[in-house]
Amino acid sequence: MTELLTAAQMRAIEQAAIASGEVTGLELMERAGRGVVEAIFEEWPELAKTSHRAVVLCGPGNNGGDGFVVARLLKEWGWEVEVFLYGDPERLPPDARVNYERWLGMGVQDASDRLEDERSRGCIATLRICSLMRCLGRA
Questions:
Q1: SS3 81
Q2: C-alpha–C-alpha distance, residues 30 and 95, integer Å
Q3: How far apart are CA 33 and CA 72, in angstroms?
Q4: Which phi and psi angles does 67 have, rounded to 5°?
Q5: 45-65 burial, b for 16+ CB within 10 Å, e for fewer?
Q6: In a domain, 126, yes or no
Q7: Helix, strand and coil percent figures for the chain, each rounded to 5
Q8: How large a percentage of the chain has pLDDT more than 90?
Q9: What is the largest CA-CA distance in the chain?
Q10: Is the distance from CB of 58 to CB of 86 less than 8 angstroms?
């Protein structure tokens, strides 16, 4: 059985890894996003066989940055992907901002503009990568 960590424990582990100089925060974010995509395809292998449609909801912190990685990787896999950002992209933490910019670099619509439209209709939702991982039994 996999031990579940609290958010504080996970932050401490990430900070220690970054402080060691062995890995950067950006690399950890890339690994997290890649892990989610791999877990999805492992759990539902049929999803890896053809392109599908995905909606990724990103929050204003580093979990949102993980979401941008997931979106980018799925798009590279050939999926039609929409991203909604809950928050101001100018206020994203540096690593999350890099992945937001990478997402925009794929020629997609600015995610922050789209959520404002959805918010006005009361359709706000959040998704945290760690929640998905828990549901899949990977966290």
A1: strand
A2: 10
A3: 9
A4: -60, -40
A5: eebeeeeeebebbbbbebbbb
A6: yes
A7: 60, 10, 30
A8: 55
A9: 46
A10: yes
Domain range for 95 is 7-135
Can you tell me the mean pLDDT for 28-38?
Answer: 94
CB within 8 Å of 117: residues ≥ 6 apart: none
Kindly report, residue by residue over 82-131, the tens digit of the pLDDT: 998 888 899 999 999 999 999 999 998 776 655 555 443 333 333 444 44
Residue at 24 is within a domain: yes
In a domain, 42, yes or no: yes
pTM: 0.79
Name residue, tokens 């020629």. 107
The CATH number covering residue 81 comes to 3.40.50.10260
For residue 2, being part of any structural domain is answered with no
How many domains would you assign to the chain? 1
